[in-house]
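2024-03-11 09:14:02 INFO worker-7 job=invfold-0412 stage=load source=structure_tokens
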């Protein structure tokens, strides 16, 4: 199963997702609200940067979106569960790791 951006966006627009304790703590540390998360993934032209279809934790993907401010956000979501959108990690893109498009990893 490969991630469908349209399906993921719909789930976020309908507030049909869970947030792991780890992701929630990351959001608190970075002063990110649920509304900002919904905006970044559900509405503001998000992109799937990487698809981890065979991840040991289950199929997931890395999404780049922009929140209300607009600030770029990376969100990793799983899409293999009954409630297919479980947020596993949130983090601001590290510009030392990502190219200017914030979707392509820099060469090591």
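2024-03-11 09:14:09 INFO worker-7 stage=emit residues=108
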């Amino acid at each position: 199963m490969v991630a469908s951006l349209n399906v993921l966006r719909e789930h976020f627009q309908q507030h049909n997702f869970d947030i792991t304790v780890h992701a929630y703590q990351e959001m608190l540390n970075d002063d990110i609200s649920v509304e900002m998360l919904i905006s970044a993934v559900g509405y503001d032209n998000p992109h799937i940067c990487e698809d981890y279809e065979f991840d040991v934790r289950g199929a997931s993907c890395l999404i780049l979106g922009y929140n209300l401010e607009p600030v770029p956000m990376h969100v990793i979501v799983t899409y293999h569960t009954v409630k297919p959108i479980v947020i596993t990690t949130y983090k601001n893109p590290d510009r030392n790791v990502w190219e200017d498009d914030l979707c392509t990893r820099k060469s090591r």
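2024-03-11 09:14:09 INFO worker-7 stage=report msg="Residues 5-91 form one domain."
2024-03-11 09:14:10 INFO worker-7 job finished
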